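Same chain as my last thread, 477 residues:
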Amino acid sequence: MSTIVWLRHDLRLADNAAFDFAVQRGGPVWPVFIAEPDGPWSPGGAARVWLHDSLAALAQELAAVGSRLVIRQGDPLDVLRELQAETGATALAFNARMEPAGRARDERVRTSLATALQIKVGNSSLLCRPDRIATGSGAPYRVFTPFWRQVYASLRQHPTLPLSAPAQLPAPDRWPASLTLESLALLPAKDWPMGLRQQWPAGAAVAHRVLAAFLDEAVDHYAVARDFPALPGVSRLSPYLHNGQISPRQVWHAVHERAAARGALEPSERELSWLRQLAWREFAHHLLWHFPTTPDAPLRPEFEAFPWCDDEPGYRRWCRGETGFPMVDAGMRELWQTGLMHNRVRMIVASFLTKDLGVHWRRGAQWFWDTLVDANLANNTLGWQWTAGCGADAAPYFRVFNPITQSQKFDPDGAYLARWLPELAALSPADRHAPWLASPLVLKAAGFELGRDYPAPMLDHAAARHAALARLEQSKR
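reply #2:
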């Protein structure tokens, strides 16, 4: 007996149902990663860099337990058939994908190979399968809070411990041919990703260190600190969760272990405020599972004919972080340089694109998809439709974030602005939020010239808000 383990967004050994099945079954294990042909939502530039480093880390992890990673390229069904013929494997194990294309691909593989191989499909990417959570009437949830209540109650009633990592993976006598990681050409030719790679060392061991540091140093302050981008108030686990270098069940269990260590039966309210964010990830996948067209179409059908603006120059300035609104520009430059953006700032920049500029939310979703190291179709879709007001649990369209007051409230010392817009560092913290409102004498004393050192604002926010509300009224007619 031998088992092929097909790896995708589950690049770890521990709490991996596919590896657990293969080890329990006995016989050689063939871990394989298949680089698939590009499609509409293939990994973007930042995600490809992250995938390269994640696969390298997994290969080291496999080597430590006597195994190796086989890399192939092509249509997964064809490649898996080839591997079965080459290895004589009698079983195939993989963890389910939740996005529409992945679900369709999994079903095609399962049905096509079921007569030749024993098939095991696990769930290692979510706490709860999306098809097993429903309202009292059996409908999918469209509001987060009742969804969270059911998920939390379900996990309390049926707690499950994370699966242990195998101490050893049985190796075959002869390994099949494998591509090199470099041959996948996941890294761009330019040196753009160097800052990103320094920010995000890959691997399961790193993921657990990041989690441990957050639980030791920041989780008790998370409920407040999470909104202030200059503070180390968030976990920074999202890229590791996305590629499966840590599982949500491992995270959930770690928080409950922390509570138990101090003699508590349940996590504290502070800890639960963070676990709710883990549940938002679940909610995003729940929505994508039940409403698979939402990456391209609004969940609320009345927004199908919304009069979005075709402002290509404005969109380009937004992408480059050259809007003249410091909080927007700081976020966009953080994104470009590190592959991540603070969640509060994500809402601000998304509101600016969809409300101030009136540009379709899909344009923003595509840019985030290409530049986020944690680019996840479910989360990305939920976030953009939430801000645009056309999705589930949506902020009403008439809620328009003011980038100046948001900056003043959540970066009062201007530290985040100064970090990502060093050209503003010479200004006082109060003047960094809106340099064009500062006294000309103050700007001159600082050696700062608006339009030379930093762009003037590309629009009047009050007028842009008025125009956004007018578009909403037009869509109703």
